[in-house]
Amino acid sequence: MAFIDKDLDELVGYLPARTEPGDFAAFWSDTLAAARSHPLDAAFTALESPLTTVVVEDATFRGYGGQPIKGWMLRPAAATGPLPAIVEYVGYGGGRGLHFERLLWASAGYAHFVMDTRGQGAGWSVGETPDDFADGNGPAYPGVMTRGILAPETYYYRRLYTDAVRAVEAARSHPHVDGSRIVVHGGSQGGGLALAVAGLVGDLAGVLADVPFLQHLRHATEITDGFPYKEIANFCKVHRDKTEQVFRTLSYFDGLNFAVRAGAPALYSVALMDEICPPSTVFASYNHYAGPKEITVYPYNGHEGGQAHQVPAALSFAAAVTK
């Protein structure tokens, strides 16, 4: 593996033009209003677990179209009073996983809400939420990047971004959560979801976005042969006459258009040998991000990014923005 993108000094100043449809704000306002016309119905059911220091609850709430979305809520067993909360979104192909895989944040004193990912959860981490707006709607492999891509109204990520916003609302409804101290968090697809939520929810305490996916979308398909972006390129390779239609749809979901609307403090991370989420796509998002921000750079890493080396920075950041 080698450096695949611009030099770091170029990346630091990389601020490409955005492609934003004129009705972007109205599209998302209408989408979220439609979702909120359904009751949230957030429910948290205690799970029997051999864990003694963490309380685990099986969570369900209603996302896009009123569809039930699964999640985990974990919190320290000894905690009293409302807690700051981390709302976590999962990387591409994964689901909420098994609850004992998610112990870091509760061990650090936070309520930790992990959202399942509709129609995914069969690639590397278990999921169980179907995508009821697609044929064969259970968790599936390999990918969803072109599901409904010919119109923003039908595109898969309209549903997933809406679920992600509603997950924040579900976390805030929990009696042990301080709704004023919410940090959204994720890596890869999860980082992209966190950034979309940051642009759609105005009162977050912070954003943790590690090697985020779904940023600077057209450029991404032009500079990497890595999947999942390659799913879009392959679609356009076959549907030659639909290319501009595809990228018009994607302009409603490009992270750059959410980054410019985000005001919460953000901590990004980027890896300079990342062939899945190329560094110029991450820096494009970071440089457009409107709120206070910082970025950690891992020069010799690929899409794994900082992994455990990023954890101390994330913990420190979360503590600072939720104090």
UniProtKB/TrEMBL annotation:
InterPro entries the UniProt entry points to: AB_hydrolase_fold, AXE1_dom, CE7
Molecular function GO labels: carboxylic ester hydrolase activity
Pfam families the record matches: AXE1 (PF05448)
Residues that, per the record, bind substrate: 92
GO biological process, one term: polysaccharide metabolic process
Active site: 188, 274, 303
Location of the Acetyl xylan esterase domain: 1-318
Protein name per UniProt: Acetylxylan esterase
Organism field: Actinocrinis puniceicyclus
